[in-house]
């Protein structure tokens, strides 16, 4: 075991492609942080089935997500890259944590409120309700110091910390208290068609999100049709010019050029010029990732082998935590 601190993060395999928000809000940071941390990156298929999934699509999307992690720079020889359902300890710890979570506490989770409103309360599953508690189990099994995520996960991280502290004080020191690592500049990437809402796979209009697996022409088309405003000046002003501010922020985080420098350089130019350059920057950043992901997907056996080896690494750590938890709560060990 290396002396580096542990890190865990994950994404749902609930679409055929990750999007630019997943990449800039989380994945870029994952790639960077795997150097200094003993990292665990999980594809959360148990979470994905909290809303209906087609089984064949889910299988394909799980492998596609793995391919995109690797193509973006996650190195499976350095970090444990695995599928949640391959490590039964996730569901097992989730049960124990369900039993120390208050009903009211779980009811306050805003993501559940949003999603259940969309689905209609009757069709929202109990799994969707306990989703954040399974997420807490994902995290706490690996004793991570850091959890790199986007802004929308902050509340789930707070719940995770609360549950860890509660368990520790009831049953004795068991869990490390994890910290959310949220990149300030890219904590929330906005929808291109509705720039006050976060970019999300459940967007009303598919033109609002750039997918990592989109071809170059599609990316260019989506960026060129991004909603801006009628004022005509290129500056970052989130309150009055969310569309232009989002484009500047996407450009800056991919190109490394500061927003101030972009504002100066584009001073007096029209939105068409800005959009054309943003499209170029996005294509040159994610085009190669898409191509690599497609290559990786052509060898399914190799992908499955990498995932199996990641699951073995993950199990070693997860099973140790789960055994300590079972012992603390008073379960007898099997003979
Ligand atoms: P998911 O699959 O919705 O998103 C994966 C990651 O992408 C980030 N993200 C964004 N960041 C910036 N701007 C956006 N528009 C944007 N959209 C998504 C998310 O914050 C996230 O970091 N509940 C989690 C999955 C999960 C998890 C975990 C995460 C399950 N267990 C344990 C961390 C640790 C989710 O639904 O992420």
Itemize the secondary structure elements and their pairings.
Elements: E1 6-11, H1 20-33, E2 38-43, H2 45-48, H3 55-72, E3 80-83, H4 89-98, H5 103-107, H6 110-119, H7 126-140, E4 146-148, H8 154-171, E5 179-181, H9 216-224, H10 242-255, H11 259-265, H12 271-297, H13 300-329
Helix pairs in contact: 3-12, 4-7, 4-13, 7-8, 9-12, 10-12
The protein binds tryptophanyl-5'AMP.
Please describe what this structure looks like.
This protein is mainly alpha-helical and 335 residues long. The chain has 13 helices and 5 strands. It has a 3-stranded parallel beta sheet. A two-stranded parallel sheet has the order 4-5. β1 (6-11), α1 (20-33) and β2 (38-43) form a beta-alpha-beta unit. α7 (126-140) packs across α8 (154-171). The mean pLDDT is 95. The structure holds tryptophanyl-5'AMP. Tryptophanyl-5'AMP binds at residues 8-12, 21-22, 25-26, 44, 47, 135, 138-139, 147, 149-150, 152-153, 156, 188-189, 198-200. Residues 8-12, 21-22, 25-26, 44, 47, 135, 138-139, 147, 149-150, 152-153, 156, 188-189, 198-200 line the site of tryptophanyl-5'AMP.
The assigned structural class equals mainly alpha
* Dominant shape: globular
Could you tell me the radius of gyration in angstroms? 21 Å
Distance between the termini: 28 Å
Q: What is the mean predicted local confidence, pLDDT?
A: 95
Ligands, deduplicated: tryptophanyl-5'AMP
The count of DSSP E runs of length 2 or more, i.e. the number of strands, is 5
Name the poorly predicted regions. none
Question: Percent of residues in beta strands?
Answer: 5-15%
**Helix-residue proportion:** 40-55%
How does the major sheet shape up? Answer: 3 strands, parallel
Order of helices and strands: EHEHHEHHHHEHEHHHHH
Q: Biggest sheet, strands in spatial order? A: 1-2-3
So how many helices?
Answer: 13
């Amino acid at each position: 075991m290396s002396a580096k601190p542990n890190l865990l993060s994950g994404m749902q395999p609930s679409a055929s492609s990750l999007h630019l928000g997943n990449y800039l809000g989380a994945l870029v940071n994952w790639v960077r942080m795997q150097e200094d941390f003993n990292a665990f990156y999980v594809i959360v298929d148990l979470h994905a089935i909290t809303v209906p999934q087609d089984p064949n699509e889910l299988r394909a999307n799980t492998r596609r997500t793995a391919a995109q992690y690797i193509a973006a720079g996650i190195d499976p020889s350095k970090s444990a890259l695995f599928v949640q359902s391959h490590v039964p300890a996730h569901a097992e710890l989730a049960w124990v944590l369900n039993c120390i979570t208050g009903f009211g506490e779980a009811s306050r989770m805003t993501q559940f409120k949003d999603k259940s409103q969309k689905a209609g309360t009757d069709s929202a599953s109990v799994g969707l309700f306990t989703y954040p508690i399974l997420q807490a189990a994902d995290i706490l099994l690996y004793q991570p110091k850091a959890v790199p995520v986007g802004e929308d996960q902050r509340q789930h991280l707070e719940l995770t910390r609360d549950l860890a502290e509660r368990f520790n004080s009831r049953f004795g020191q068991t869990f490390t208290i994890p910290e959310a690592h949220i990149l300030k500049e890219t904590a929330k990437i906005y929808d291109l068609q509705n720039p006050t809402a976060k970019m999300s796979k459940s967007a009303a209009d598919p033109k609002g999100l750039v997918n990592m697996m989109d071809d170059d022409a599609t990316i260019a088309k989506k960026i060129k049709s991004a909603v801006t405003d009628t004022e005509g000046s290129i500056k970052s002003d989130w309150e009055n010019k969310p569309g232009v501010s989002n484009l500047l922020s996407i450009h800056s985080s991919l190109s490394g050029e500061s927003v101030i420098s972009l504002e100066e350089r584009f001073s007096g130019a029209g939105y068409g010029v800005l959009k054309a350059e943003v499209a170029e920057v996005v294509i040159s950043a994610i085009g190669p990732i898409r191509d690599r992901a497609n290559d990786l997907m052509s060898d399914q056996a190799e992908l499955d082998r990498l995932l199996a080896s990641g699951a073995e690494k993950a199990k070693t750590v997860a099973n140790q935590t789960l055994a300590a938890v079972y012992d603390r709560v008073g379960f007898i060990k099997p003979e």
